[in-house]
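hey m, so remember when u said the tokens were messed up on ur end? i reran from scratch. heres the input so u can diff it against urs
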Amino acid sequence: MIHGERKGYIKAQLQKPDDKSIPSYVNKKGRWSRSYGLFPFDFAIQMMHQQNHGTMVLVEGPRDALRLLNYNVPAVSILGTQSWSKKKIRLLEFADVDRLVPCFDGDTAGKEATAKILPTLEGAFSVHPIRLWVTARKIAERKGVPTKEVKLDPGNMPVSLIRNLKRLVLRTSSNQ
């Protein structure tokens, strides 16, 4: 839903299936996600406005956004790096978002999403990226395990990191 109008849909399993041949998400066919694929846009914007600030967290997948929203962190899923577009930037601007906190997965895809998307945000928003792969490396070092064993994304990161993210959202909101 974008401004009360259904633009597309996704269907998802509550948890990622162990069998990689089973799709985790199914999107409505068409190119709607490239133009309007910010999930759940209306709900997240309403939460941001109710909290009286202009900061939104960007994540990769719908489960990531839903988890953060559950902790009262305004977040939208971009529905995949390949669907990022200038139209999505305009939707966020139109909704009075002025600060973005990109918080993409701590894997290779998340690094690539950060590298691709951050330059497109310059000039339009104040940007405060979270680099979960750096946090994963620090956790791995502290635990004495290989970094590849610590997988962080907004859908599975510890609640303590979500609280830190929420403080960042509120702190960046008050630094107008």
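this time it looks ok to me. The longest helix spans residues 159-174. if urs says something different then somethings off w ur setup not the seq
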